[in-house]
Design a protein that fits this description.
Layout lengths: L17 E3 L4 E3 L11 H11 L10 E2 L1 H7 L5 E6 L2 E6 L13 H16 L3 E7 L6 E7 L3 H8 L1
Antiparallel strand pairs: 1-2, 1-3, 4-5, 6-7
Length: 152
């Protein structure tokens, strides 16, 4: 886990929602009581489960994945910079979970394929050089010197 995570501001921090199946409700990670009766006790129970109870047995799932994709995706709690977050869980080898629409995913694939069809290598979900952002599609084109040479 990356315990050195720092957000520029609270507005930059996106929290995945979390649904607690045994209680049949969403939890509010912004509140110490999680927005449920005896929530502080529940948080303590969930924290004691870490490294003892498998993620898929803790009862925490992503309500967005359930509602939008019809998938039951387990989440686990992680604390970064004093803030509790729900992180998607996937087993090694599982396909990464995406909240992007099917249309957005298809557009990214089309841009990458069109670029490659025209001789430019394209990488989907590529990290920027400084590591502060993730690009939907990075198109690797000619360098300035080779571009200038090819024009003459």
């Amino acid at each position: 886990m990356d315990d050195e995570f720092q957000s520029d501001s609270d507005e930059d921090l996106f929290r995945n929602p979390v649904y607690y199946e045994p209680a049949g409700r969403n939890l509010d990670l912004d509140r110490l009581d999680l927005g449920v009766p005896q929530g502080q006790d529940l948080l303590n129970v969930l924290l004691r489960m870490r490294k003892r109870v498998p993620v898929d047995k803790r009862g925490l799932i992503c309500p967005d994945c359930r509602d939008l994709r019809g998938r039951r995706v387990h989440v686990y709690l992680v604390q970064r910079g004093g803030v509790w977050l729900a992180s998607h869980y996937r087993k090694p080898g599982d396909k990464p979970i995406s909240h992007e629409s099917d249309e957005h995913l298809a557009r990214k694939e089309r841009v990458a394929k069109d670029s490659e069809d025209h001789g430019f290598r394209a990488d989907i979900e590529s990290q920027t050089a400084d590591g502060h952002a993730r690009l939907d599609v990075r198109i690797n084109g000619a360098t300035a010197s080779s571009w200038a040479t090819s024009l003459s």
